[in-house]
Specification:
heterodimer; A: about 325 residues; mainly alpha; 14 helices; globular; B: alpha/beta; four-stranded antiparallel beta sheet
């Protein structure tokens, strides 16, 4: 995962002060916070036998970490690929597209398609279709021409609305049983993480992560903008297409587990950028992932154990993320 | 040598670059001049593979730019544009280090570090090297980007309107620096310029474009003549010889 953690945890002795730069410090502090949230999540308010509590909460924990990881990674990658700090995959309608695909599968092939197929195979199928659609649609938008950010925001909002309208249209025509099966996937819920595909999803993430680590220097070059990246020898079209494919996979994973979340990615990516203070991906990526894990695991612990609420985390996160979005848009407009 | 053969680019129905066939000699400074909308920047973008062409070919030392791998070209030819819209928050040194990316792919060797120091020194950015780019003035930023391009150490350096937003002092400093890079480091510098006097004073070779075509080309002193310039810009331009250099006067 974060490549710098090993050096960050290296002994204080014998390491010059230069190693403890701000980004390294941020990552160390956030790792400790993340660890504390994880321990609290697993132990607080546990009644009954540990042999039940540990696997029960462990599955949920793994699900939350997976979601935080893929949302953070997909948002940072998407922002790097499109060279902006306001748009995220969910604002551009990636996750609505995924829900639309799920709905269409049930709509056209019936509820049987969900039940008869091996769940992992079904997940894989959805993911392949998602990659196909999303990369076709978004590489058309981002690779072939340089477009203005305002146009992209507009297109994203229109796409999002269109996907959601088609979804609700299909739902209206759908057999109530099928609707019931699908219902879970329409709303974000962090307290009811769908843990069916955990193993498969982790395998997918491992593959994506290896690719990401290998491409980190290229991501840094992309932050200089398209012209400079091409000048420095980046194969622009291929790289951006590869990144959009990775983003599609990550969005599919997180949407399958908890449903669509619009502003969460924006929240962690913006926070990560301002905490790290520079735009090197070897710092920004782990910071964003750690922030996402802290938000989800820590937030869920506080809500479940301290306030004894159940479903409100997504609302709070979306509320904060929405404020960040408005702030970013206004700040940009002011310039 | 950069050779373009019948290079053409359309934007919708309008033809911006119309069958340009050129050869830009290796060594020295070549300036591309011409009125707005003549296709100068578009041509430079196509030569540097930032933009695809509709027709024609461009070769740089025999390498076809649309067929050669981008990473190979990045060691031969560099391009710097003016609208460097970027989200990155970087220090000057970070930016200059990117110039080594075509060679080291992000893992800097000791030799790379030395070249980065050299480029920073060459542009007198020593005391600014740890400052963030958004804390610099326009002229300093510009120098930082040029340092990156020099650090890339390519035979051909292409610059699109490098004097934009620079005051007289910085514009002159930039041109002197490019002259120095051409003379001392043996670079071939190709510029798009708007100020014909800068072009006259510092270039070896001038290419004039108009309506997407090459209107005239030749050594600087043959190009800076009233009959040539007046035709290109469609206005009355007088040329005076001052201190052994040809200076155009076109104010009315």
């Amino acid at each position: 995962m974060p490549p710098d953690l090993s050096t960050a945890h290296a002994p204080f002795l014998g390491i010059s002060r230069r190693t403890w730069t701000r980004p390294v410090l941020v990552i160390v502090v956030l790792s400790i916070l993340a660890l504390v949230s994880i321990v609290c999540f697993m132990t607080l308010g546990a009644k009954g036998s540990w042999s039940f509590v540990i696997p029960f909460r462990g599955r949920k924990l793994l699900g939350l970490i997976l979601v935080g990881y893929s949302v953070a990674l997909s948002t940072v990658l998407f922002q790097t690929a499109t060279n902006n700090r306001i748009l995220t995959p969910s604002i551009m309608g990636f996750d609505s597209l995924y829900v639309l695909l799920q709905t269409s599968l049930v709509f056209f092939f019936g509820i049987g398609s969900l039940i008869s197929l091996n769940p992992d195979l079904h997940f894989l199928l959805e993911m392949v279709v998602m990659i196909g659609f999303a990369s076709a649609l978004f590489s058309w938008l981002f690779v072939w021409q340089e477009r203005s950010l305002h146009l992209l925001v507009l297109v994203g909002i229109v796409f999002g609305i269109m996907f959601r309208s088609v979804i609700s249209f299909m739902q209206r025509l759908m057999d109530p049983n099928a609707f019931n099966v699908l219902q879970d996937s329409f709303f974000a819920s962090f307290s009811r993480v769908d843990t069916d595909h955990l193993l498969f999803a982790y395998a997918v993430l491992a593959v994506v992560t290896i690719a990401v680590i290998r491409m980190i220097p290229v991501f840094d070059v992309l932050t200089l903008g398209r012209a400079n990246a091409i000048n420095l020898g980046v194969n622009y079209k291929r790289t951006i297409t590869a990144m959009l494919i990775m983003v599609s996979v990550l969005v599919a994973v997180s949407t399958a587990l908890v449903g669509p979340v619009t502003f969460f990615g924006l929240l962690v990516a913006s926070l990560a950028h301002s905490l790290v203070g520079n735009s090197k991906h070897k710092y920004v990526l782990p910071t964003a992932v750690l922030l996402a894990v802290i938000c989800l695991v820590g937030g869920q612990t506080v809500l479940e154990r301290i306030f004894e609420f159940d479903t409100a985390l997504s609302i709070i996160i979306e509320f904060l993320g929405g404020i960040v979005f408005i702030f970013l848009v206004l700040r940009r407009a002011g310039r | 040598m950069i050779i373009t053969t019948n290079v053409t680019k359309h934007y919708g129905a309008s033809c911006v670059v119309d069958g340009v066939t050129l050869s830009i000699p290796a060594g020295g400074i070549t300036s591309i001049i011409g009125p707005n909308g003549a296709g100068k920047s578009t041509l430079l973008s196509m030569v540097s593979r930032l933009m695809s062409m509709d027709k024609g070919t461009v070769t740089v030392d025999g390498l076809d730019v649309s067929k050669t791998g981008s990473e190979v070209l990045a060691r031969r030819l560099s391009i710097l544009r003016q609208d460097n819209h970027m989200t990155a928050r970087l220090t000057v040194r970070d930016l200059v280090s990117f110039g080594r990316f075509p060679y080291s792919r992000g893992r800097l060797t000791r030799d790379d570090e030395k070249r980065i120091d050299d480029a920073i020194g060459y542009l007198n950015l020593g005391e600014l090297s740890d400052r963030f780019l958004d804390e610099l003035s326009g002229g300093q930023r510009q120098r930082a980007f040029v340092a990156m391009v020099l650090c890339q150490d390519t035979d051909y350096v292409l610059l699109d309107e490098p004097l934009n937003n620079l005051d007289m002092k910085h514009a002159m400093g930039m041109m002197k620096l490019l002259r120095k890079a051409a003379n001392e480091l043996g670079k071939t510098v190709v510029l798009v310029l708007h100020d014909i006097n800068f072009a006259s004073w510092y270039s070896d070779f001038i290419i004039a474009m108009k309506h997407g075509k090459v209107a005239a080309q030749g050594p600087a002193d043959e190009m800076i003549r009233p009959e040539v310039l007046s035709g290109i810009y469609e206005m009355d331009i007088k040329v005076h010889e001052i201190g052994g250099q040809r200076i155009s006067v076109y104010y009315e």
